[in-house]
Specification:
alpha/beta, 46% helix
């Protein structure tokens, strides 16, 4: 029997595109067996499983200028660009409650990608009890330099996108034969090599992590090339059809809405093709 998985790329608030895609998938009752999310892909992807359509867009717009959400104030006062207490406690339990019960009840498997700072390798964590495993989601979305390392069971973690931005290879190895990939970059995008001097200052004690950061453009571009080649064959890709300049920590409401709406539009346009692929 064929198994279907959603693979969700990260990218900070570029991931609001993914939120638009997922809301349309919910509207169309697209069924999957599993979801694997990286960084923002993990943080936003949980709402697909809890079936909370519109929640990601809503809480991002509602807290756009809340200094306790994410941004420079949080970075200066807590050492994390995403405020731990607000994002992973106040927001999910009080301001815009996440439906933990629906998540727990769902038969969809959910995996979160994190990067082990000491080994430089990705780890794919199955989230079975979200309330007690929320730290893995926080780790997956913890961008280096502007976030503290998240320590869980003696291991130090940061952003999953550093070691595996689009875990399609992992999904294939796990036996999923119908793979829906949601990217947050256009088809033509390729990563360019950049200086890692700043990373060397922050993570000089972690040579394996630095090695992973250095090889990231090459690995990302290799994966991207594979996905482009296999689109509509071994995988089905939904990605931005046009470029929208949006920051990882975006404060412009118009840009956030535009990126979300693009996700909605692109998914509506390819829905019939997606349903054919899933047959």
């Amino acid at each position: 029997m064929k198994k279907t998985i959603l693979v969700l790329e990260g990218g900070g608030l570029r991931g609001i595109y993914t939120a638009g895609v997922l809301d349309v998938l919910l509207e169309n009752h697209i069924q999957v067996d599993a979801v694997v999310g990286v960084s923002a892909g993990a943080l936003f992807g949980i709402n697909y499983i809890s079936k909370q359509k519109g929640r990601v867009l809503r809480y991002n717009l509602d807290n756009l200028h809340n200094k306790h959400y994410m941004g420079l104030y949080s970075l200066i006062t807590t050492g994390n660009i995403m405020n731990k207490d607000f994002c992973f406690d106040t927001l999910v339990h009080e301001k815009d409650p996440f439906d933990f019960h629906a998540f727990q009840k769902s038969k969809i498997k959910f995996y979160c990608v994190v990067t082990n700072v000491e080994t430089g390798k990705p780890e794919y964590i199955e989230i079975k009890d979200l309330e007690n495993q929320m730290e893995y989601l926080r780790a997956s979305g913890s961008m280096p330099i502007v976030s503290k390392m998240v320590e869980i069971d003696g291991k130090k973690y940061l952003d999953g996108g550093i070691s595996d931005s689009v875990p399609i290879e992992w999904a294939i190895k796990k036996g999923y034969d119908r793979i829906i990939v949601v990217e947050t970059r256009m088809k033509e995008y390729r990563k360019k090599e950049k200086s890692i001097f700043l990373f060397q200052l922050f993570y000089r004690k972690y040579p394996q992590f630095l090695s992973t950061i250095q090889s990231r453009p090459k690995e990302y571009n290799k994966t991207k090339k594979y996905i482009v080649r296999e689109d509509k064959k071994s995988c089905f890709v939904i990605r931005p059809s046009r470029f929208i300049k949006i920051k990882r920590v975006e404060k412009n409401k118009k840009k956030i809405l535009e990126m979300y709406q693009l996700g909605v539009e692109d998914t509506h346009k390819c829905m019939n093709l997606l349903k054919d692929y899933l047959k």
